[in-house]
């Protein structure tokens, strides 16, 4: 099918994009279009105005500081993958990006777009959640910072106001004794995951776990973060072992069933992926 | 009746700039096929999954069904029609698909050709894994993929031997 009619507004600046978003009725931001255009082609979305931010140079930067990696809202998935700076500062970003769709989609789709889209099957929603990252926004009434814990409200529902756009997403770097890993199951390589988990484990000076947590994708309306601190602090992952972790996760996760997987099968996959991603952090 | 707003859109396709008049909702795939008559770019699913609409924008493969024509003005667009030289001499990827039987019905072929073209322009000695990864986003219901992989491998070989 074809999209319904709309007016196209290429924004010349973030200020102009915010102004247009405020003034125009039923307007949406167009970034890479890799989630929005499929919805429009199927008439599941039919905005009257699209404000294109993909050409904005002021949003095209990847900034790496001592402690953080900041990705501008027009940076594509492919640009994140190609950035040696981002890859060496936070290898988890690259590991996750490789799991997102295929190169053709990554060439246009943006990292910030997948956060705004708030699909709980999107890898980046889990990454920003497990790292306690944040997004910065702009609007005519001023910008604000939204912590990852407050960003996702439901499937395809973020806490962004209608007159607000994301200008960048910021991911804290991991400390020297901290390890991360991403594991997921998809029907075919490049498809959205049926279930997946991304773990971050911090070790103390005796190589015992100081803290550990995982974010799960495709198991609930928003990315689900589970802390392993009570189970793992002061011990080693291998000493606690598969069955205890698996049982713990099975009791914590409340996935839904759909055409791809029943709720029970998805709980099983998610618990296995949770274990696999922790095991990879040993 | 509502009249829909039209846009004057400059499209630079295969080195030639043309102006079309179309609404903002015109997908690049439809602008190429409809307004410009370049029906080599095929349309299967219109949600980014099948890959037969793949074209190059500034050298990178993108889905033309997930791109609005109005949003890629003045960018370098290349389609399957731009592959063969003016005299009709086949491009290495076309030569290789022909030689290795990389197609049967041919519906998926334009997308595979453009994807393979982008790959070997970036890297004329791809590993087996890089070839598989590059074409993983394109679907073919006929060939079973083995001959397509062989064709991409052979296309890279032609490019390398042309250079020496
Ligand atoms: C075949 C296919 C497979 C895919 N597989 C995966 C996958 O496995 N994993 C995955 O994570 N994703 C996948 N995607 C989606 C892809 O990652 C998209 O790039 C991403 O979800 C959206 O980014 P975008 O820039 O294309 O956003 P758009 O499509 O332009 O926008 C999506 C939504 O976010 C809003 N938006 C975008 N940017 C902003 C902003 N800066 N501020 C406010 N609102 C904004 C838009 O208004 C719209 O509502 C797939 C897509 C396709 C077509
Ligand atoms: S028609 Fe564009 S990917 Fe199928
Ligand atoms: S040759 Fe028929 S779909 Fe590929």
How would you portray this structure in words?
The complex is a heterodimer of chains A (282) and B (164). Chain A has 282 residues and is of the alpha+beta class. Chain A folds into three domains: 7-52, Uridine Diphospho-n-acetylenolpyruvylglucosamine Reductase, domain 2 (2-Layer Sandwich); 57-172, Uridine Diphospho-n-acetylenolpyruvylglucosamine Reductase, domain 3 (2-Layer Sandwich); 178-279, CO dehydrogenase flavoprotein, C-terminal domain (Enolase-like, domain 1, 2-Layer Sandwich), CATH 3.30.390. Chain A is 33% helix and 26% strand. Chain A has helices spanning 14-23, 36-41, 77-82, 84-89, 91-97, 103-106, 111-117, 123-130, 148-151, 229-232, 237-240, 242-252, 263-279, and strands at residues 7-10, 27-30, 49-52, 62-64, 68-72, 134-138, 145-147, 152-154, 157-158, 165-172, 178-186, 193-203, 209-217, 224-227. The longest helix of chain A is centred in the last third of the chain and has 17 residues, at 263-279. Chain A is globular, with a radius of gyration of 19 Å. The termini of chain A are far apart. Chain B is an alpha+beta fold. Chain B is 34% helix and 15% strand. Chain B is built from five helices and five strands. The longest helix of chain B is centred in the last third of the chain and has 18 residues, at 146-163. Classes of the chains: A alpha+beta (282), B alpha+beta (164). Chains A and B meet through strand 1, helix 2 and helix 6 of A and strand 4 of B. The structure holds flavin-adenine dinucleotide (FAD) and FE2/S2 (inorganic) cluster (2 copies). The site of one FE2/S2 (inorganic) cluster has 12 residues of chain B, from loops.
């Amino acid at each position: 099918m074809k999209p319904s009619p709309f007016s196209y507004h290429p924004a010349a600046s973030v200020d102009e994009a915010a102004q247009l978003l405020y003034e125009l009725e039923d307007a949406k931001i167009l970034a890479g279009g890799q989630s929005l255009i499929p919805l429009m082609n199927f008439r599941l979305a039919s905005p009257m105005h699209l404000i294109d931010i993909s050409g904005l140079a002021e949003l095209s930067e990847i900034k790496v500081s001592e402690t953080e990696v900041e990705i501008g809202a027009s940076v594509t998935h492919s640009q994140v993958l190609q950035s040696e700076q981002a890859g060496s500062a936070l290898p988890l970003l690259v590991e996750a990006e490789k799991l997102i769709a295929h190169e053709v989609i990554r060439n246009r789709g943006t990292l910030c777009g997948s956060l705004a889209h708030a699909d709980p099957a999107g890898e980046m929603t889990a990454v920003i959640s497990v790292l306690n990252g944040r997004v910065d926004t702009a609007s005519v009434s001023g910008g604000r910072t939204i912590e990852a814990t407050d960003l996702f409200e439901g499937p395809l529902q973020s806490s962004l106001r209608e007159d607000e756009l994301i200008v960048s997403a910021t991911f804290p770097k991991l400390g020297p004794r901290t390890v991360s890993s991403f594991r997921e199951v998809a029907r075919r390589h490049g498809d959205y995951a049926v279930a997946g988990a991304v773990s971050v484990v911090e070790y103390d000076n005796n190589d015992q776990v100081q803290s550990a947590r995982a974010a799960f994708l495709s198991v609930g309306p928003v990315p689900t973060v589970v802390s392993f601190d009570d189970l793992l602090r002061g011990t080693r992952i291998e000493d606690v072992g598969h069955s205890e972790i698996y049982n713990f996760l099975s009791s914590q996760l409340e996935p839904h069933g759909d055409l791809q997987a029943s709720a029970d099968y998805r709980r099983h996959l998610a618990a296995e992926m949770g274990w696999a991603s922790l095991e990879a952090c040993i | 009746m509502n009249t829909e707003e039209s846009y004057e859109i400059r499209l630079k396709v295969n080195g030639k700039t043309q102006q079309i008049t179309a609404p903002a909702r015109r997908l690049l795939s439809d602008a190429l096929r409809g307004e410009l008559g370049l029906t080599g770019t095929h349309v299967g699913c219109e949600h980014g999954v099948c890959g037969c609409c793949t074209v190059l924008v500034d050298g990178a493969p993108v889905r033309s069904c997930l791109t609005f024509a109005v949003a890629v003005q003045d960018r370098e667009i290349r389609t399957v029609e731009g592959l063969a030289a003016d005299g009709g001499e086949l491009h290495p990827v076309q030569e290789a698909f022909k030689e290795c039987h990389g197609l049967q019905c041919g519906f998926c072929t334009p997308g595979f050709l453009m994807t393979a073209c982008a790959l070997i322009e970036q890297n004329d000695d791809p590993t087996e894994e890089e070839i598989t990864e590059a074409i993983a986003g394109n679907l073919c219901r006929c060939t079973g993929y083995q001959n397509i992989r062989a064709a991409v491998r052979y296309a890279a070989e032609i490019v390398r031997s042309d250079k020496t």
